[in-house]
Design goal:
single chain; alpha+beta; 8-stranded mixed β-sheet; 30% helix; binds ligand MTE; binds hypoxanthine; binds dioxothiomolybdenum(VI) ion
């Protein structure tokens, strides 16, 4: 009866697509404000490191409409917003750890009044020496988490014994999430110490926990809901929690609803970003391009606090070889502590940064040998041509899929023909240079932290046969809700119109993981499937008794329950059967639960099987560069992405295209710029350039066909949210090809492209 597959696999549009475009979709800030709602604004530090000796709030308090100014002393519970570690204060007390750290919060009758008053709060600060670069933090040996090292064989000996050796250093910048909807939360106090929080969050359970922590109350007093986010991209995995915690403090202290919606500028200053990385490596290789040994340091700028850096570094170090096999490695990844905003989750969660390492190695080795990076990469593909398929930390990659995505991308892009055309163009033009670049990805799916790989769902069938679906996953635009609704439709054999999609709520499904690590549909899909199955089995019992047949012989399809086969002359409408269940006093409500099987990790040995499976993809980009100005453009991208048996190809295609463009932005135009005082100067769209519609290349995308997941994922689908961001690495590689040097730091802005051209001579 399972897998009738009429709804899953259909290219249905996002359930809110029309509402998104008409503006009817309701975001947190669109909810009508209750009378008496106060607005909050944050007071941010104007120095990167220092000690607050006095906070002057009198002028702000005297301003019209101002109700309160709250600092660290006004927090009813703990001044700690650490999601994983401990002692990460919401308000500096007394040490300011970064330029933009919150010092206090103003509450006022209007948002304008709050913002004006926040600007009137001043602080006396004794400056301390700030640490503002990864290099300086490395010198001082200060980390937010201990280094993680993956070893296999003797890397140094293998490098020393290899016919050729190379060493290099390069860097990659961070990235601002630039979600369309900024961070926002609305906290409403209730009776008996209750707090109702509407939060734009990927992690309602963590919002609940941190709100409880700052209020000093039990989790059961706090209810958190989220219908949708206007984008999260990892930026609302941990950072949403402290925004909500601040709103809740205001609501508790004043007894009134409090909304905190960060202005874009404050959002860009005070919330974490993708970790910038510094890489240092040495490698040994032979004449064929086979990499025999690799020793590398991947140093992330963790910023001032731990936040999620442990997980980010873990993903970086486990993805540092990409789809390649290197027999002897010593890979060290760490997050250094600096006086910068605390860097956080961002689509790929360290995976994209990890994968840059092997790409840099491959490209420099190819240049040294006078061959192509494509040849070197393919020479080292895991599980291909006699190379091991086992990654250095113990689990296996699927060499056939790696070879297949690459072959399909190359064929779809007409690689050989265009290589020749580009050579001809370059020979004929004095200053413009075209280039081709490629990328092959292998991305591990599951949270690196085992306990997060769980999900719950709550399904009700009402006595008219309508269905209400709730689960722990959150909707941020990625199409999770429709995918899970499709799963439920398939279980019940009903149309999508029967299923009401509802807001995520800690009161309906408790103790959840964040919607992150691309696992939303894998985890919640199974949880919802289990809940729906439980109800369907009860309904089948009722129908079977009526008909005197075995419950297994009841078939749910076409909005009906059929006796033995579709089209049989005995059948109940789904609603009719639901009514019958109610009359027979059979429960039509069930929870479902799922935990990912077969995953384990030994953090001491740095070995195990942390990922349920891998997702694969390949891409080829063509770029054109003006060698006089460094300006460049990506003209065409050919992408192949493995989504297993896609639950919804329309949604998945959108995810691949969006991820590619977001990756392209990270690698080519989005530059975070801190001045010498550690003050972020790129704090709006005028100074921080995200890709515009004209930066999007012609994209030829195919989802890998006939490749159902080889492990038991929901309907054999595969996660898609993050992996395709790595595909954009082909644009970096194409730029290197165009300018004729593999040494190109990121983001490859026109300025850096020019510098690389100059350095090359
Ligand atoms: N797509 C949209 N439109 N908006 C988002 O915020 N976040 C990405 C990805 N795709 C995001 C998105 C990130 S960082 C993750 S981890 C996944 O979606 C999370 O959702 P999933 O697990 O359901 O794929
Ligand atoms: N991705 C996103 N968030 C996480 C992860 C991950 O792999 N691990 C822990 N939190
Ligand atoms: Mo995505 S960075 O795992 O929220």
């Amino acid at each position: 009866m399972d897998g009738l597959g009429r709804t899953t696999g259909a290219a249905l549009r996002h359930d809110s697509a029309l509402k998104h475009t008409t503006g009817e979709a309701r975001y947190a800030d669109d909810i009508p404000e209750a009378p008496g709602t106060l607005h909050a604004a944050l007071v941010l530090a104007t120095i990167a490191h220092g000690r607050v000796t006095a906070l002057h709030t009198e002028a702000a308090r005297a301003m019209p409409g101002v109700v309160a100014v709250l600092g660290p002393r006004d927090i009813p519970g703990a001044n700690d917003i650490a999601p994983v570690a401990k002692n990460e204060p919401l308000f500096a007390d007394p040490v300011i750890e970064f330029h933009g750290m919150p010092l206090a919060m103003v509450l006022a009758e209007t948002r304008d009044a709050a913002l004006r008053a926040a600007a009137a709060v001043t602080a006396d600060v004794t400056p301390l020496e700030p640490v503002l670069s990864i290099e300086r933090a490395l010198e001082l040996g200060q980390n937010v988490i201990p280094p993680q090292v993956i070893r296999r064989g003797e890397a140094e000996a293998a490098i020393a014994a290899a016919p050729h050796r190379l060493a290099a250093e390069f860097r990659a910048g961070g990235q601002e999430h630039f979600y369309l909807e900024g961070q926002v939360a609305l906290a409403t106090p209730g009776e008996d110490g209750e707090m109702q929080v509407v939060s734009s969050t990927q992690h309602p359970s963590e919002v609940q926990h941190l709100v409880a922590r700052v209020l000093g109350c039990d989790f059961n007093r706090v209810t958190v809901t989220c219908r949708r986010m206007g984008g999260g991209f990892g930026g609302k995995e941990s950072n949403a929690s402290w925004v909500a915690a601040a709103a809740a403090i205001g609501a508790r202290v004043t007894g009134r609803p409090v909304k905190l919606r960060l202005a874009r500028r404050a959002d860009m200053i005070a919330t974490g970003k993708r970790h910038p990385f510094l890489y240092r490596w040495s490698a040994g290789f032979d004449d064929t391009g086979r990499i025999l040994g690799l020793k590398a340091l991947l140093a992330a700028d963790g910023g001032w606090s731990t936040d999620l850096s442990g997980g980010v570094v873990f993903r970086a170090v486990t993805h540092a070889l990409g789809p390649c096999d290197v027999p002897a490695v010593e890979l060290t990844a760490q997050a250094v502590r600096t006086n910068s905003v605390s860097h956080t989750a961002f689509r790929g969660f360290g995976g994209p940064q990890g994968a840059l390492l092997i790409e840099d190695v491959v490209h420099r080795v190819a240049a040294a040998l006078g061959t192509t990076p494509e040849a070197v990469r393919a020479r080292n593909f895991a599980g291909v041509g006699g190379n091991s398929d086992e990654v250095p930390y113990g689990q296996k990659l699927e060499g056939d899929l790696i070879a297949r995505v690459w072959a399909e991308a190359k064929q779809g892009a007409e690689w050989d023909r265009r290589r020749a055309a580009i050579a001809a163009f370059n020979a004929s033009h004095p200053t413009l240079r075209r280039g081709l670049g490629s990328m092959v990805l292998a991305f591990g799916i599951s949270f690196g932290i085992q306990h997060l790989n769980q999900a719950g769902a709550l399904v009700h069938v009402y006595s008219d046969g309508s269905i209400r679906l709730n689960h722990g996953g959150t909707e941020m635009g990625q199409g999770l809700f429709i995918k899970i609704a499709q799963v439920v439709c398939d279980v019940f054999g009903v149309d999508l119109g029967r299923v009401a999609i509802t807001a995520t709520s800690t009161a309906e499904v408790p103790n959840t993981a964040p919607t992150a690590a691309s696992t939303g549909s894998d985890l919640n899909g199974w949880a919802a499937h289990h809940a729906a199955r439980t109800i369907r089995d009860r309904m089948a019992d009722v129908a079977a008794r009526r008909w005197g047949i075995a419950p297994e012989a009841v078939v749910f399809a076409d909005n009906k329950a059929w006796a033995e086969r579709i089209g049989a002359n005995r059948a109940f409408d789904f609603g009719e059967l639901a009514k019958l269940c109610f009359l027979e006093r059979v429960s039509l409500s069930a929870t479902g639960f799922y935990k990912t099987p077969d995953i384990h990790w030994d953090a001491k040995a740095m070995r195990g099987h942390p990922f349920f499976y891998f997702s694969y993809g390949a891409a080829i980009a063509e770029v054109i560069v003006d060698t006089l100005t460094g300006e460049h453009r990506c003209l065409r991208a050919d992408l192949v992405q493995d989504c297993g048996r896609s639950l919804n190809p329309a949604v998945d295609r959108g995810q691949v295209e969006g991820a590619f463009v977001q990756g392209l932005g990270w690698l080519t135009c989005e530059e975070l710029w801190w001045d010498r005082d550690g003050r972020l100067r790129t704090i709006g769209p005028s100074t921080y350039k995200i890709p515009g519609s004209r930066d999007v290349p012609v994209m030829n995308l195919r989802l890998l066909e006939g490749a159902p997941a080889r492990v038991e994922t929901i309907f054999r689908s595969k996660a898609v949210g993050e992996p395709p961001l790595l595909l954009a690495t082909c644009v970096w590689n194409a730029l290197k090809d165009a300018i004729g040097t593999p040494a190109l730091d990121l983001p490859a802005t026109p300025e850096r492209v020019l510098m690389a051209l100059r350095a090359k001579g």
